Automatic annotation (TrEMBL), chain A:
Domain of life: Bacteria
Protein name in UniProt: ABC transporter permease
Topological category with respect to the lipid bilayer: Multi-pass membrane protein
Alphabetized InterPro entries for the sequence: ABC_transp_permease (IPR001851), LivM-like (IPR043428)
Record has Transmembrane as a keyword: yes
Automatic annotation (TrEMBL), chain B:
SMART domains to which the protein is assigned, alphabetical: AAA
InterPro entries registered for this protein in UniProt: AAA+_ATPase, ABC_AA/LPS_Transport, ABC_transporter-like_ATP-bd, ABC_transporter-like_CS, BCA_ABC_TP_C, P-loop_NTPase
Annotated CDD domains: ABC_Mj1267_LivG_branched (cd03219)
Family designation: Belongs to the ABC transporter superfamily.
Keywords in alphabetical order: ATP-binding, Nucleotide-binding, Transport
Protein name: ABC transporter ATP-binding protein
Function: Involved in beta-(1-->2)glucan export. Transmembrane domains (TMD) form a pore in the inner membrane and the ATP-binding domain (NBD) is responsible for energy generation.
GO biological process, one term: L-isoleucine import across plasma membrane
Organism for this UniProt entry: Bradyrhizobium jicamae
Length: 339, 252
């Protein structure tokens, strides 16, 4: 069963247009419902730990899902996607600390900086094939990380942005209030996922699938492969950057680890855990990784070893991510019933 | 009209296409034949932009396309299918067609609407009907038979409404019966669509039976052009190409 069939369920594409609108309305409803559930969560469980967990899921989930737009949908395996996460955190943190603009202005400005940076880096990288693309993106990640470490006067070097990020209230939202921060993070997560799902299901999303499957053929039906790759590289960077902004708000600072290559590694790890053939796979992977991280680090200091074994189990044992596995299992069961 | 003027391409010291000049009239059906390494595929790759010519012109209705990129050339109306079926394995037949029409309508980067676009539907449907793939519309391309994958490859070129269709060995890797079915299909498409078709073919029976015009390539050069009868009698062709085939045939 292909990703697309899985995505569209049993409904065939025979009657496309009437479905297009209803499908989007359905997505809007699902997004709204998800947001309401998340927003009401604090009324049921008031544990700060749980809310913190969801905020971290929002930050990493946006990052990992945007990475899947590159890895799963376009076949671009970036090992440097974390640089945009770091860029988001530092860009936003610095803007708030140094310029004193309002939160929405800083957010938009951070996205603008990310846009320009991703455009330049992407223009260099997306021409490269597979392994070269992976390594050059990694090189840019290390370049940004080194810049953060050595530009001490601006970034605080290996100490990171300290002293907290000022979060002046705007539109009645006060992000220094934990609950407000929680609801805002949930809103950003849901909006981000909705937009990325729209990208994945748009004609452009299918252009990406064609490039992943067979870039040569795509160019022979008139698709400008380089431009399409660059476009998705920049779009994915914007969502990763948003994840970084959430993280900066959450820890009220930014640290060089946010821009270190291990963040990109974790992104890949999450995608392997959750699976790249479904849209929500990386989101599931994020929840799994964060739970694993939180529990394993409490139990043993060799948490790297445990995580390694888990990823080996998924890579060699299941040979796919959890969501891929679930979808296939469900399809098999449905087929069996059909017979 | 597709006019090739003094087209040349060398790889190192080897002249893969050597000063080729040819005209393909609108609505013609031409077979390109020649021994292995004659430069047939290179010739196609040059016309479609997969390779950049060293010299020469490729004029489609007077517009020079030499040296342009594949997407540009496709948009000018030269479509192609590949020797090894070149398709999108994870897409279904129908999605493949819809996405191709989308690309042709310059809507491949539309973000705000949902795939598939309603205006792409009729053309996709038409192409599937033409190639006999309509009943397999929901099959993933990877699960199609070899023959159907070749048809899908041709459908991908045809759905773009090209003026010229280049088919690189449409019958490659097929059994005898399947070959004839494929070549009948090619002929039928040519008759129905009234487009210029150029195809590479190894099977001489097929070539002599269906192609009104034949081009023989050898070592990158044109050895002969003409009707099947003229080619069959051409001494240079017999010596360089057909002769060996006949011997091979006799031995069997």
């Amino acid at each position: 069963m292909s990703e697309l069939q899985a995505d569209q369920g049993a409904q065939a594409l025979d009657v496309p247009q009437p479905h297009a609108k209803t499908r989007r309305n359905r997505d809007v409803l699902i997004a709204l419902a998800a947001f309401v559930v998340l927003a009401l969560l604090p009324m049921v469980f008031s544990s700060k730990f749980l809310l913190d967990f969801v905020i971290r899921c929002a930050a990493y989930g946006l990052f990992a899902t945007s990475l899947n737009l590159l890895v799963g949908y376009t076949g671009l395996t970036s090992f440097g996607h974390g640089m945009f996460f770091g860029l988001g955190a530092y860009g936003f943190g610095l803007m708030m600390q140094k310029t004193g603009v309002s939160v929405p202005v800083a957010f938009v400005a951070t996205l603008a900086i990310t846009f320009v940076t991703a455009l330049v880096i992407g223009a260099i990288c997306v021409r490269l094939k597979e392994i070269y693309f992976a390594f050059v993106t990694l090189a840019f990640q290390m370049l940004i990380h080194s810049t953060i470490l050595s530009w001490v006067s601006l970034t605080g070097g290996d100490q990171g942005l300290r002293g907290g990020i000022p979060r002046p209230p705007f539109w009645g939202i006060d992000l220094s209030n934990h609950l407000h921060l929680y609801v805002t993070s949930c809103a950003l997560l849901v909006i981000g996922l909705f937009l990325m799902h729209q990208i994945a299901q748009s004609p452009f999303g299918y252009t990406l699938r064609m490039i992943r499957d067979n870039a040569t053929r795509a160019s022979f039906i008139g698709i400008d492969v380089w431009r399409a790759k660059l476009t998705i590289f920049v779009l994915a960077a914007l969502f990763a950057s948003t994840g970084g902004v959430i993280m900066a708000l959450f820890v009220s600072g930014a640290y060089p680890e946010f821009a270190y290559w291990t963040i990109s590694g974790e992104g890949i790890f999450i995608n392997m855990l959750g699976g790249v053939t479904t849209f929500l796979g990386p989101m599931v992977g994020t929840v799994l990784l964060l739970i694993l991280n939180d529990t394993v680090t409490r139990l043993t200091e060799y948490h790297g070893l445990v995580l390694g074994i888990v990823i080996l189990f998924f890579a060699i044992g299941l040979r796919k991510g959890l969501m891929d596995f679930v979808i296939e299992w469900y399809a098999q069961r449905r087929d069996a019933r059909g017979k | 009209m597709l006019e090739i003027r003094s087209l040349s391409k060398s790889f190192g010291g080897v002249k893969a296409t050597d000063n080729v000049t040819l005209d393909f009239a609108d609505g013609s059906l031409t077979a390109v034949i020649g021994p292995n390494g004659a430069g047939k595929s290179t010739f196609f790759n040059l016309i479609t932009g997969a390779l950049t010519p060293d010299a020469g012109q490729i004029l489609l209705n007077g517009v020079d396309l030499a040296g342009r990129t594949p997407p540009e050339i496709v948009r000018h109306g030269i479509g192609r299918a590949f020797q090894v079926a070149s398709i999108f394995p994870s897409l279904t037949v129908q999605e493949t067609m819809l996405a191709a029409v989308c690309a042709d309508q310059r809507k491949a980067s539309v973000l705000h609407r949902r795939f598939p676009l309603s205006e792409t539907r009729d053309r996709a449907e038409h192409a599937m009907e033409l190639l006999g793939l309509a009943s397999k519309r929901n099959r993933t391309a990877a699960t199609l038979s070899h023959g159907d994958q070749k048809l899908l490859d041709i459908a991908l070129a045809l759905v773009l409404d090209p003026k010229v269709l280049l088919l690189d060995e449409p019958t490659a890797g097929m059994g005898t019966e399947e070959r004839w079915r494929m070549i009948d299909k090619v002929r039928e498409l040519w008759e129905k669509q009234k487009i210029t078709v150029v195809f590479i073919e190894h099977d001489m029976d097929i070539v002599f039976k269906i192609a009104p015009a034949i081009v023989v390539l050898c070592y990158g050069r044109i050895l002969a052009t003409g009707t099947p009868d003229a080619i069959r009698r051409n001494e240079a062709v017999i010596e360089a190409y057909l002769g060996t085939e006949h011997h091979a045939g006799a031995a069997v």
